[in-house]
Design brief:
311 residues, alpha/beta, five-stranded parallel beta sheet, 37% helix, 14% strand, globular, binds phosphoric acid mono(formamide)ester, transferase
Length: 311
């Protein structure tokens, strides 16, 4: 099945076969990457521009690697040294890049909806690399691929997403993807960090972390998104760790073969204990990063199939 849109703006709205196709394709790229082979003819002659208005280590680097491994010309636009600093708007910046015949535009922006707005103004395929508190679709894909590789399926798994749910685009994309694929999703956090629309998301809500972790197959930890908070929604970091930080005692409540995930960047000692983050068998955080490259290769491949042959 082909991707239903020219763009990838969100997980919400994708059907199970669309998600399964992307994960299957990503799995083949994961194997290709491990073999050391490349497929540099697939995006030959295509231009990919990374346009990041917010900081990033993993997402920007992995889109760059993914594009290069498929043969695209990749440009990382540094917003901090661009004409945005002279007052140029997002839409004018996008129109300028569009005039340079860019094929794939990867954008991260603090404003929810910015990639969707851009997609209406440019010819390029637009990929949302994280917009405000809305969505981070490629993160959810790489998380799902990592889970599937360890558990063999998504359906029926109990996934506990813990921490700052209210401000997390990672949580939102994961909730849409995992519920669509039949997982049982729990969101776990203090009442101040549970989103107001939790009831419509099809999840179970827990404010007691020990109850939320009971018998979980997957424990996904999130950092406090202080840059998106207005006012003091949490007590001190030390108190947050006591009630909502993942340590060995709390993890013991999940299934003995449960896996621990974190999208990064991590704040050790705040939402996760270092011993758990670095646990040799339970933590799959490094593998998440590896799957990020494979998933982004799959997304670029899938969207490139819908691009016009000659621009
Ligand atoms: N998970 C994630 O989006 O990480 P970066 O902010 O480093 O891209």
């Amino acid at each position: 099945m082909s991707h239903p849109s020219k763009h990838l703006l969100a997980i919400e709205g994708l059907e199970p076969p669309h998600i399964a196709d992307l994960l299957d394709l990503a799995e083949s790229y994961a194997l290709l990457n491990r073999s050391g082979k490349t497929q540099r003819d697939l995006l030959k002659g295509r231009t990919l521009i990374n346009l990041f208005f917010e900081d990033s280590t993993r997402t920007r680097t992995s889109f760059e690697l993914a594009g290069k491994r498929l043969g695209a010309d990749v440009i990382n636009m540094s917003v901090s040294t661009s004409s945005v600093n002279k007052g140029e708007t997002l839409l004018d910046t996008a129109s300028t890049l569009n005039a340079m015949q860019c094929d794939l535009l990867v954008i991260r922006h603090a404003q929810s909806g910015a990639p969707a707005l851009l997609s209406q103004k440019v010819d390029a395929a637009v990929i949302n690399a994280g917009d405000g508190t809305h969505e981070h679709p490629t993160q959810a894909l790489l998380d799902a691929l990592t889970i599937r590789r360890h558990k063999g399926r998504l359906e029926g798994l109990i996934v506990a997403i813990c921490g700052d749910i209210a401000h997390s685009r990672v949580a939102r994309s994961n909730i849409h993807l995992l519920t669509t694929m039949g997982s049982r999703v729990r969101i776990v956090g203090p009442p101040t960090l549970i989103p107001a629309d939790a009831a419509r998301l099809g999840v179970e809500v827990f404010t007691d972390m020990k109850a939320g972790l009971k018998d979980a197959d997957v424990v996904m930890m999130l950092r406090l998104q202080r840059e998106r908070m207005s006012g003091g929604l949490v007590p001190s970091a030390r108190e947050f760790f006591r009630f909502y930080g993942l340590d060995a005692e709390k993890l013991a409540l999940a299934k003995p073969d449960s896996i621990v995930m974190h999208p990064g960047p991590m704040n050790r000692g705040v939402e996760i204990d270092s011993a758990i983050a670095d646990h040799p068998t339970r933590s799959v955080i490094g593998e998440q990063v590896e799957m990020g490259v494979a998933c982004r290769m799959a997304v670029l491949d899938m969207l490139a199939r819908r691009l016009p042959r000659n621009r």
